[in-house]
Design goal:
six-stranded mixed beta sheet, alpha/beta, Metallo-beta-lactamase, Chain A
Length: 249
């Protein structure tokens, strides 16, 4: 008899908050948030700027806020932290991973909801196959998310204040035996010249990043250049974008 192949476990990434629209029936606003769903865990990365919009978009995308086990905050700017309090009012049964540089005031707001926060300084396992890069230094200290998939690593950034190239290089040093298949999220290139963006893309491609899905604070001009440079390996992103990936064995 032929050998039966087992179904691969799936990882679903859904952008639920962004200032760029992917699905027209969802609400856009400045900020970023995405949900990472595996067969074991559901992780919310960032919360956008407004909790009402965050929760409304989750309903439209059929994502139950109660299904989320962990929240990871990339950095404490309002457009990534602003929706957290409203979310915790709906689901206080989570752990919130915050950068080590988070103020005591912001930490107290989380505690006021009866929720435990965990300060992240170094690379940290969030769930099976999902990791924080640890807090990277920059104009604003920030942590990013790394997801292990069958095709390689997926790196999700909030705003990439430490520099998108620095973040991707850090991921490579943390996972030296795994390639980065996809980088997505905000790359903080909105105010950069086209020439500077081209130079940064040269460095990103030099690191072997196979696919790219920039959004949020990357900027329209920079996103257009990424699209030209990556061609069929450019993934249009924005609120409502959903990607289903195979989990790593």
């Amino acid at each position: 008899m032929p050998e039966q192949k087992l179904d691969k476990k799936k990882i679903t990434l859904t952008v639920i908050f962004d200032n760029i629209a992917y699905l027209s029936d969802l609400t856009t606003d400045w900020g970023f948030s995405c949900v990472i769903q595996t067969d074991k865990d559901t992780v919310l990365f960032d919360t956008g700027s407004r909790g009402k919009i965050l929760l409304q978009n989750m309903v439209k995308l059929k994502i139950d806020p109660q299904s989320i086990h962990s929240v990871v905050i990339s950095h404490t700017h309002w457009d990534h932290l602003g929706g957290l309090d409203d979310f915790l009012a709906i689901n206080p049964h989570v752990e919130v991973y915050i950068p080590n540089s988070t103020s005591q005031e912001d930490e107290k707001k989380i505690a006021a909801r009866g929720v435990r926060s965990i300060r992240v300084e170094l690379s940290h396992r969030i769930a099976t196959g999902i990791f924080s890069t640890g807090e990277l230094a920059g104009e604003m200290p920030e942590q990013s998310i790394v997801i292990q998939t069958a095709r390689g690593l997926v790196v999700v950034t909030g705003c990439a204040h430490p520099g998108i190239v620095n973040i991707l290089s850090q991921v490579q040093s943390l996972f030296p035996r795994e390639k980065i298949n996809l980088a997505m999220g905000g790359f903080h290139l909105k105010s950069f010249s086209n020439e500077k963006v081209e130079q940064i893309i040269d460095l990103i491609q030099g690191l072997g990043i196979q696919q790219i899905a920039p959004s949020h604070c990357t900027g329209e001009a920079a996103i257009a250049i990424f699209s030209q440079r990556y061609q069929e390996n450019f993934i249009q992103s924005g609120v409502g974008r959903r990607m289903v990936l195979e989990a790593k064995d």
